[in-house]
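For this section, I looked closely at a protein sequence along with its fold in token form, which I now present.
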Amino acid sequence: MFRFPKTAAAIAALITVAACNADRDAADNIAASIPEVTIPEISLKTMQDVVGALASDAFEGRAPGTVGEEKTVALLIERFKAAGLEPGNNGSWTQDVPLVEITAENVSPLTFTGGKTPMSLNFGSEFVASSYRVQPEISVKDSDVVFVGYGINAPEKGWNDYSGLDVKGKTVVILVNDPDWQTAEAKGEFNGRAMTYYGRWTYKYEEAARQGAAAALIVHDTEPAAYGWNVVQSSWTGTQYLAASENNGADQTAANGWIQRDKAKQLFASAGLDFDKLSTDAKKKGFKPVPLSGVKASLSFKNKIARKQSKNVVGLLPGTQRPDEYVLYTAHWDHLGKCEPVDGDGICNGAIDNATGTAALVALAEANKKAGPADRSMVFLAVTAEESGLLGSKYYAENPVFPLSKTVGGVNMDALSGAGAAKDIVVIGRGKSELEAYLEKAVAMDKRVIVDEPSPEKGYYYRSDHFSLAKLGVPMIYFDGGQDLLEGGEAAGKAWADAYTEKRYHAPSDDMSAITSWDGMMADLRLYYAVGRMLAMTTAWPNWNEGDEFRKARDESRTAA
């Protein structure tokens, strides 16, 4: 006769065993539903030709609303047609995405008065700023300055860095990343080393606007930001793009920007405060905002404004058995356009980021067409304005050509590795969805291994276009070649990745010379093909894992369908 154990430890052990068995059963059921696929040859010539064209100076860095966009869209339509795709948007190859092009001109110094030592910061080298308000002139004058820690308001965590102080009309100074970003593991209030959305600069500006701040300044720090000041300067000193809104951004802060960390320390010292101590205090729950008593911030600039219709490009390979069910391949075609010159070169070509992913859409379209139509329809979606805050994918997600409730899932491709063939594959945001079972099967076919992100603090999961679709419930997977190279091992892979981040990312030197080998890229394309093809040939509807932040949206979407 079985007797229930009476100790809490024994009960917990039984529960753990049952849970593990349930997880194993679920994983086995998913694996059993994944079909076998044959991976055809994928064209290296296509990759080289398309990347070479998109990353050439003739495309001027592919900024939305420019001649570079016109050339990019035309090239994609030509290549999608040649690959055998059909126009994806009700007979059209494109989806209009309304944007506002806004360029700050005559930017004044950022001044701070009222402290022990007045300060005047130079635009570009010491601070950057722009506005999300679509108005011709921006002025922040004698605005009280407040330090709001990490600028997080997370009621579900009992965390509010704005608690107890009204910041309406004030300038808030904010730390980058999450409070526990220095935790070695992905554990803690904000997932430890792995960044959450609360750590992204986009969230921090959104929350500052909700709080009514006049201006929001993020303190740049290279390690938690995941890039140097050169990236901030190249990304924020030129034309910016905003999603068009009915109120022209009237509910946004007047100015959003970044300041150098050493300037922030000087500012706090001028107010009689210790920046390092307050930064440490801000890591703890219960932190309260700290006014920089007597300090006033001022800044002004003019906005050159133009309204543009940018375009997403949509190609379709119709399914034969279930054509009203859709599998997505996504990549962003845009880059920064003309940017801050380096050694006389003022075009940010974006070869790795993301001519590679865009070219992959073409190469995978060709391969899938040659293999014959799948059971489900396959959508090849090249989106605009990723560099401006995922605007093209956000617009598609909120105005989908194909219903999200009928979209099975998809693969996002952003900045494929040019380092060489690797033994490993990195899943960005590992453990989030059942799509990983599909990748695991593909990886096993190629005798590679899946590893955790080497730099989870960089928050890549919230920095590319899959996030726009994930927020609305569509399971999306984002993965890339790892750093354990066949030639040179982990040391060589890390050296390439570090050099790219420090010297080429969002810089004019992200050109064709950044690709030192095509072998890894082509090996990774086999996996992109396999995962998408498996999804298109199964009857299963993979979901986010239980407890994931996007599970609820997917469940509601599928229930409604």
In short: Residues 108-305 form a domain with the Glucose Oxidase; domain 1 fold (CATH 3.50.30.30). The chain has two domains: 42-101+308-425+474-538, 108-305. Residues 8-33 form the longest helix (26 residues).
